[in-house]
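hey so u asked for the seq, here:
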Amino acid sequence: MEKALLYEFIGTAILILMGGGVVANSVLTQTKSNGAGWVNITFGWGLGVFIAVIVAGPHSGAHINPAVTVGLATAALFPWAEVIPYILAQLAGAFAGAVLVYIFFRSHFNITDDKEAKLAVFSTMPAIPHRFNNFIAEVIGTFVLIFVILHFSNPSFEASTLAEAKIGLGSIGALPVALLVVAIGMSLGGVTGYAINPARDLGPRIAHYLLPIKGKRDSGWSYSWIPVVGPLVGAVAAALLYLGLLNIN
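ran it, structure tokens below
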């Protein structure tokens, strides 16, 4: 269990280092890829997932996302007793990854005047603020993520004992999951920035709040519950539908 949690921490830290890094490369002043845009960002996040799954998959299943953990537990594919430890490891890893992004790009943070861009490196904010619409966007985006993951990996989830199975994104393979994340970002990401991962948003948001970032704005706490609660609701809904479909003859 301790090794699995360590790899959840490492995998999530890698995810945020690469994902936050591609946003920083695209929006901070005087980076060589400044202005690279949405396609660059979506592929960067997808490839961040790819790398994280390669590293953590054999050891923890590479959930790297509380919504995945809760979705798998709801579908009776992961023990509920391990859900909280996994989520805590993911949150800690996301925070650590965000700190690394700040250290790496500190000079560019210092010369960037755009406070919104600085926050965007760490956390999501909606393009058009509307609590209900933003919440539904996160629910639907995460529903797609978890529902497809469950269908991707159904044959790989068979194991003699749950304790021996490395169940998670690593059960599917890194490339299909990476392409799934890119697809969600390309098609559904423009409304909220597609957190679809509570740890990915909350851990770095805490880092943004705590780090001595020059000229930063507030950390958007009034919005912060949406990219946490929305993905969890979407994950549970996807798992329940998946279970319901399994029972249809």
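The chain has one domain: 2-246. The radius of gyration is 17 Å.
lmk if thats what u needed
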